[in-house]
Amino acid sequence: MSNGFLEELRKRQVFRAAAMYIVVAWLLLQVADVVVPALQLPDWTITLILVLLTFGFPLAIVLAWIYDLSPSGIQRESKKIEAEPASASPSDTTRRFDRILIVLIGVAVAALLVDRFLPDGEGELPEDRSSNVAETHKAAEGQSTQISGGGLRPSAVEERSIAVMPFKNLSGDSEQEFFSDGMTHDLITDLSRISGLFVVASSSVFTYKGRIPRPQQVAEELGVRFVLEGSVRRAGENIRINAQLVDTGNGRQLWAERYDGTMTDVFALQDEVARQIIGSLAPQLSPREVDELKPVPETSPEAYDLLLQGLGHLRRWSPEEVLLARGFFLRGLDIDPGYARAYANVALTYSVPLEYGWSQSADKDMAYAREYAEKAVELDPNLSMVFGSLAMVYMNVGELEKGLASIERALEIDPNYADGYTIAAHLNTYAGNFDQAGELIETATRLNPRYSFNLVQVMGNRAYLQGNYPEAAAHYQEVLERNPLMPMGRKWLAATYAQMGRREDARWEVEETLMIMPDFSISREEETIPIRRPEDRTRYLEGLRKAGFPG
Fold it and tell me: Which domain holds residue 164?
C-alpha cells in the first residue's frame, strides 16, 4: 500500500512541487537577507518571511495533490487523470517545470559553492571621494576617519588579537545609529586597555559597516585571531545586546550571549560584555592582564546619550557638525558637570578647527581648548583619550614638550590606542626624533591596517623634515586625494613643491590653502608650529617662503 501511495505522490508531481517550493523559498530568504537590512526594515521581517514560508509548505503540498498545471490550465488532478491516457507522455508544461526546477537547483548549488569556496574579495571598498571632502581625521576621542580601501594588509595573524565589528542597529530607527556605533567604540576602548591583547582600531573595523563579511575574511585582512559580532536594539529605556565571539583559527563560536537591561545600567551591560570576552580569552592572557580591565566610567544615562549623539556629529567632521557636537557635549556637562569625556570632546571642538583653519578667533579657541582639556585630565586621569585630547591641544597651540608628556601618559594607560600612536609619531617628528617616529608609525599601521590620512600626513612631514621631498610629495598628494579640504596637507605640499623647484605647482597649492585659511601667514605659523630643532624649523619656513605664502 505504501508503494502505491508513493507512486500516487509521484504521479501527482507532489515531490516535484515540494522540491520547487524549497528552492524558491531558499532563494527568497537569500534575497530578503540582503534587501531587509538595506531598506532598514525591522529585524523581525526575515523571521516573519521564514514563518510564512514554513506554514505555506503544507498548503503547497496539498495544492500539488489536488491541482496540476496542464496545457489546458490549472486542473483538479482527478479530472486531469481522467482526461489523459495512462501511457501519455509528460506534458510540455511538466517538462518546462522540470527545466525551471533544474535551473533553480543549479543556481542554489552554485551560490552555495561560491559562498563556501571562493574568497569574498580583497576587502577593498570602492573609494567615495565625495565623502572624504566632508570628513576629517575623526579627532573624536582619537578615532580616525574611516577610509575606503587603502592601508596595509597584515602579513600574519596576531595570536592574542581581536576585531570588534560594528554592532548592527536593530532598533528599527536609523536615528539610533549613533547609539550602536557608540557602544562599539566604547567596547573597543575598554578592551584596548589590556596590554596583553591586540585590539584593532575603530577606524579599521568601521570600514566593514553595512557589510556582513565572514570572520575568516576579517582575520585575513586585519590580522586577528578572534572576531566579535553583535547587535544593539534600543526601545525607549530598554536595551538588548546580542554578541558572539568567533575563533577564526577553527571557525568555532566560543560563546554567544544576549544581554538585557535599561539605560540606567548601560555601563554594567558594557562591562559584562567586555568581561565575557576576556573570560573567553583567559587562556591567552595572564591573570594580571585579565585584571587590567577596569570598570566603565559611569555618568547619568542622559549625559551618556548626549555624549554619543555629539560624537555622531563630530565623526562627520565639518564646521557645522563641530558646532552641533559641541552643543550636545555642553548639554551633557549641564547634566553631569564632572563628566571627563564630555570635557575632553569639548576641547577637541575648539582645538581641531585651529588646525583646519575654521577658527574665527584663534586666541579664544586656544584658551578654551586648553581649559576644557586640562579639566578633563583633572577629573579622570585614568582615561587615555583625555590625555590624547590634551596632547592634540598642546600640539595645536605649539607646546611640544607638554604634548609629548601627555601622549606618553595616554599610551601607558591604553597600549592599543592606535590614534595615540599617530599623535605620538606627529609630535616626535616635530621633535626631530625621526627613528622613534618611524617605529610609532609602524605600530599605528599594525593596530589600524586601514589607517587614516592623518597618519599619511605624519609620514609626509617626517619625509619633508628629513629632506626627502619626492617621498613627502607622494604622501601629501595621497592626503589631498582623500580629503581635498585638508589645509595642513596643502601648505606642506606647497612647501615641498617649492623645495623641489616646482614653483607653478607650489603657487597653485598656496592659492588653494588661502581659500581655506585666508588668514594664514608665515609669521603666525612661526609662532605656533612646534618644530623643536632649528634646522628643521628653517627647512619648513624656507619652503613656505619659497612657495609664496604671505609673510
Answer: 145-291
Residue 296 lies in a domain: no
> In sequence order, which ranges of 316-452 are alpha helices (DSSP H)?
319-335, 340-356, 362-379, 384-396, 400-413, 418-430, 434-447
Q: What is the pTM of this model?
A: 0.62
Distances from the Cα of 84 to the Cα of 77, 80, 88, 295, 391, angstroms: 11, 6, 6, 78, 88
- β pairing state of 252-262 and 238-247: antiparallel
From start to end of 53-140, where are the E strands?
67-70, 73-76
424 plus 482 within the same structural domain: yes
Q: Are residues 371 and 401 in the same domain?
A: yes
Do 489 and 435 lie in one domain? The reply is yes
Which one, of 317, 43, 315, lies nearest residue 178 by Cα?
315
- Considering the domain architecture, whether residues 70 and 161 belong to the same structural domain is answered as no
Distance CA 385, CA 523 (A): 32
Length of the chain: 551
Element (H, E) at 495: helix 487-499
pLDDT in tens, 178-225: 777 877 887 887 777 777 778 888 778 877 887 777 888 888 888 888
DSSP characters over 308-346: HHHHHHHTT-SHHHHHHHHHHHHHHHHH-TT-HHHHHHH
d(CA 397, CA 538): 19
How far is 512 from 488, CA to CA, in rounded Å? 11
